Amino acid sequence: MLPGLVAGHYTFDESHIDLAPLARWAGAALLATRVERLDAQGRVAHCADGSAQAFDVCGIDIGSTPGMDVPGAREHALGIKPVERFLACWAEELEHARHGTRKDIAVVGGGAGGLEILLALQHAARAAIAEPANQPRFHLLTDTPSILPSHTPVVRRLFEGVLGRRGVAVHTGARVIEVEPSLLRCAGGAEVRADLIVWATSASAAPWIRESGLAVDDKGFMLVDRHLESTSHRQLFGSGDIAALRSRKLPKSGVFAVRKGPVLAHNLRAALRGKPLLPFITKPSALGLITTGDRYAVMAWGRFALAGQWVWRWKDFIDRRFMAKYRRPGAGG
Ligand SMILES: Cc1cc2nc3c(=O)[nH]c(=O)nc-3n(C[C@H](O)[C@H](O)[C@H](O)COP(=O)(O)OP(=O)(O)OC[C@H]3O[C@@H](n4cnc5c(N)ncnc54)[C@H](O)[C@@H]3O)c2cc1C
C-alpha cells in the first residue's frame, strides 16, 4: 500500500499495522528498537538503545533495502526504504516542489517497485501543485535494456505506454556509477540532472547479517533451509525478504514474505519444544498487481496481463481485507 499512501489514496493509519495492540494480543513484549549486531553463536541481539537481548530461538524478518553501494548514493539519494524515512523526506520535498524548486525528479530502478513509486510521486505532485509551470519533470533510470526486466513483454508494453502518456523520461541501459548533489552520472558518460533522486533498485541485505557469522548467499541474504532455519546456526530462523532459500530462488516480494509467516510461527514454537519443523512449500508463481498512481493497475499472471481501474479496485479490496485482519487481532489471520 506504500505507493497508494504516497499517491494520497490511503492515510498513514490505513496503510500501517499498529504493532502494540497486536503484540499485546499475542502476549509478546514489543521492544521498539533496532538490532544493530547479532552474536549468532552467543545468542544475543545488540540493539540501538544499548540493550542486549539474549534468546534461545530467534526469527529474523528485517526485510531489505535498495542497494545503495554506488558512490554518493547514500549521501545524495533518498532510498524508498526504510519507509518511515522515505515518507518524512517526501513530505518535505513535496513542499519544496509546490514552490517550484524541484524541477526534475529522478527514480533509479526500473522494476515494479521503482515504477509504482515514480507514478505515485507524480500523481501526488500533480494533485498538490496547482501551477502547471511548477510541475516537476520525472525521469526513470534503469541499467537494463528495458523497464520491468523480470516481467513479460505484454506487461512491459503496458507500462511503456503509461510512462509515455505521463511524459516520463525513461533512460534505459543507464547504469548509474556515481551520484553527486542533483546529478546522476551513468556508465558511458551520460548524465541526468535531478533536484530529487529517489533510489529504488533491487533489494540488498543489512550488513550485520553477514557480520554476525550467519551463512549468507552471494548478496549477503541469510541462507535458510526448507524449514527457514539458518544453514549455519540451528534455531535461528529467517523469513521474508532477508531470507534466501538454499534450494530455490524466490522473488523478494510481500506475497512470499506473507506465505512464509505461518511456517516461521510454527517452527519457532516447535524449535522451543523440540518438536518436528514444518517445511516451507510454495508455488513459485504469484499474482502481480502493479499500480500506476491514479487508481489504475496492471495485473500480471504468468503470460497474461489485464489492466484497468477495476484491477486497482480489486487490489484495493485485497489490501484492505489483509490489513483489517491485523486491526482486529484474534478475529482471524
Ligand atoms: C514501492 C514498493 C512496492 C511494493 N509492492 C509490492 C506488491 O504489490 N506486492 C508484493 O508482494 N510485494 C511488494 N513489494 C515488496 C514488499 O514490500 C516486500 O517484499 C515485503 O515488505 C517484505 O516483507 P518483510 O517482512 O520481509 O520486510 P518488511 O516489510 O520490510 O518489514 C521488515 C520490518 O523489520 C524492521 N526492521 C528492519 N531492520 C531492523 C532491525 N535491525 N531491527 C529491528 N527491526 C528491523 C523494519 O522496520 C520493518 O518493520 C513492494 C516494495 C516496494 C518498495
Explain what you see.
The protein is globular and about 65 Å long. It has helices at residues 2-7, 19-26, 73-76, 83-98, 112-128, 153-165, 207-211, 254-273, 309-325; strands spanning 35-39, 44-47, 52-54, 58-60, 65-66, 78-79, 104-108, 137-141, 169-171, 176-180, 183-186, 191-193, 196-199, 203-204, 222-224, 236-238, 243-245, 288-291, 297-301, 304-308. 32% of the residues lie in helices and 22% in strands. The two termini are 18 Å apart. The longest helix has 20 residues, at 254-273. 33% of the residues are buried. It is built from nine helices and 20 strands. It has three domains: 31-64 and 205-273, FAD/NAD(P)-binding domain (3-Layer(bba) Sandwich), CATH 3.50.50; 66-203, FAD/NAD(P)-binding domain (3-Layer(bba) Sandwich), CATH 3.50.50; 288-319, no CATH class. It has 333 residues and is of the alpha/beta class. The mean pLDDT is 94. The strands form seven sheets. Strands 6-13-7-8-9 form a five-stranded parallel beta sheet. The structure holds flavin-adenine dinucleotide. Residues 2-3, 34-35, 61-63, 80, 82, 113, 116-117, 240-242, 252-255, 257, 289 line the site of flavin-adenine dinucleotide (FAD).
Architecture of the largest domain in CATH?
A: 3-Layer(bba) Sandwich
Write down the domain tally.
3
Strand order of the largest sheet: 6-13-7-8-9
The fraction of residues in strands falls at 15-25%
CATH class of the largest domain: Alpha Beta
Task: Please state the overall shape, judged from the principal axes of the Cα atoms.
Answer: globular
